[in-house]
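job 3f2a | input accepted
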Amino acid sequence: MPTTRLPERTLYRFGLGALAGIAGVLCFAPFGLFWLAPVVWFALFALLLRAGTPREAALTGLFFGLGFFLSGVSWVYVSLSVFGGMPWWLAGIAAFLFCALMAIFPALASWIFKRRQPAAWWRQALLFAALIATVDWLRGWIFTGFPWLAVGYSQAPPSPLAGFAPLFGAHGLSLLVALAGALLLRWRVGLAFLVLATLGGFALQQVRWTTPVGEPVSVALIQGNIPQEMKFRPDAFLHSLNLYRQLVEENPAQLTLLPETAVPAFFDELPPDYAQSLQAAARKHGGDIVFGTITGFGEDYWNSALSLGNSPTQRYSKTHLVPFGEFVPPGFSWFMQLVSIPMSSFSRGPERQAPLAVAGQQLAVNICYEDVFGEEIIRALPQAGILANLSNTAWFGRSLAQPQHLQIARMRAVETGRPMLRATNTGMTAVIAADGSLQAVLPPFTQGVLRTEVRGHQGMTPYARYGNYAFLLLAGLFLLFSQLPRRR
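job 3f2a | predicted structure (488 res):
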């Protein structure tokens, strides 16, 4: 009888693919080995060239993806088991299935590559780069989107390739990195391309796409470090309120930011004097305070940011909700019975919301992982001069999630030419300059207040104007040239 057993060298190739995927995580924060990224994706490219069939190529991409995501987003297990209350074994299965779902994307790119593999090496490089970057982009909106660890994020500052981000965005950098990796097949060509890309990135970093406007604004970013297991406990509720009020009063500023759900209750149900005391503290110093809370009533409620102070009260409500954490996908109500996640049925905020006019600035607020979606951030431009992210990543414990999230925020600053303020519960609270450099950051899992000054910026980068269209055009051209018939 014929056997379907794979040859030993094929299984060996799958193992190498998984190791390459694990190595890929080192390119991202907190490890920061951005220069390793072309080598990692060269390894995947070389393995695909040696695959005998599209099926073998797909399995190679799948093992690469499993190594990549199981090591890179292992913090999903922490949120389900430690803080979600799911049994450890079931949380492990759920986390594995999630990572396996994400691994389908590089598997799909690998399968298509082998099916359409051209003969010429440079066409192979174009096809590989276009497919790797495109599946990263697809991962950003299929199933509501999870573009975490898109290849381009590895090139956030201090990588010199970050200079291309204002032109093509993070996905354009994915295209650049994958192309550089594939071109290393001809190492002289690959090294020459990397040198040219590096020099081009340095040159583009000297371009100032946006300019500061107005006077500097004093800022206080408050990191309460409230343990996640205590955040929604009734006996700890008043302690949280009093802590944040004390930190606000002790750290006056024109603009004060508190984290996502810093007030973990419906705003209308707070003690009557609490909002008044916050507003009085802000007005005392001629400023405004923006804090995360819950607004709405009954079955319709929103994960929101409210402003209080000298300016009129304004609200931003989160638009891009987290599946299972903030809304229940159809058909998955049974899953929510296995976990204990409070407030897991939020309503979506409007897609288009005006920036908050606070402290004499136009503030584009986004909540939690909304800043992972570059084209959603640019909706508030050009009106907004400052970006602000309110997060609570205590759900993921002491894991890679926090430094990875900070790296993503740095990319958003570079793409838009706007400073980014991050106020988080347990980290990483930071001020990011308009060029993506870290102006200041608080140590994670500490209680503190980050005080500094920031200026709003005006002007538009090409990415802020056109979003991912330039990247998609380039990827389309790569695909076209890779598949053109060869001239005799």
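job 3f2a | The longest helix spans residues 88-115.
job 3f2a | closed
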